[in-house]
Amino acid sequence: MESCVIIAPAGHLPRACVTLRAPTLAGRPMTGNAAPMNAAPRSRFALRLAWAALWLLLAAVSLEFLLAAYGKYRHLDSPAYGMFMTRRGWLWLHLAGGLTTVLLGPVQFLTQWRRRHPRLHRLTGRIYFIGMLVAASGATGLIATSPAPFAIRLAFAATALAWLTTGLTGLIAIRRGAGDLHQRWMTRNYAVTLAPVIFRLSLPVAIASGLAPSPTLIATLLWCSWTVPLPICESVRRLAGRWRAAAPATAVPLAGTR
Description:
single chain; mainly alpha; two-stranded antiparallel ribbon; 4 strands; 69% helix; 6% strand
């Protein structure tokens, strides 16, 4: 395969023509890069499709949780309050802050939206952190006044501590300009945010499998609701990073070319 490169000043006729030959192997042009170049868009599309499916699943599960868990408290005289009736102020704080974080969390991970609207991303991020602090304050009040066994209160306290720790670590990272580190810690933080959702899904499954509801079971599921998703989330993130790194790079125009 031959190509001709024209060398001439701007606005003038061609002065010289240099013929270039593509590298050959055994007399045949080397076109081995064509397949990887075509495979790269497919790999990126598959990765985006997988992430989209994951986020849609999380959104559906979270929406169902919000409708079920929050709907039963919409009436002030609802029997669902039960032992929370005298502590409903703490409960309302926890529910309001939790609702904010569950709804705003997925929006913060939209890459294109984050790049196109950085100021709005920062604003919603601040609202997310405020919601987290409000929810954690409500959780602290509920734990301190709860008549539940110590094992359950300890599990709730550990969840709240993990939530605050991951969130504040992510905040410190972005304040120092470490964007990648911030994103990693906020991914972990949102995994802990979804702990109540995972707990609500796992409890009926455990009971259906024959386990009797008990303080030990509830405490164990509370611990597992965030200690299990965290390593899974980390593994998925690393796998996605390796997938991106292994995907062949596409051709990029040189600076100044059109």
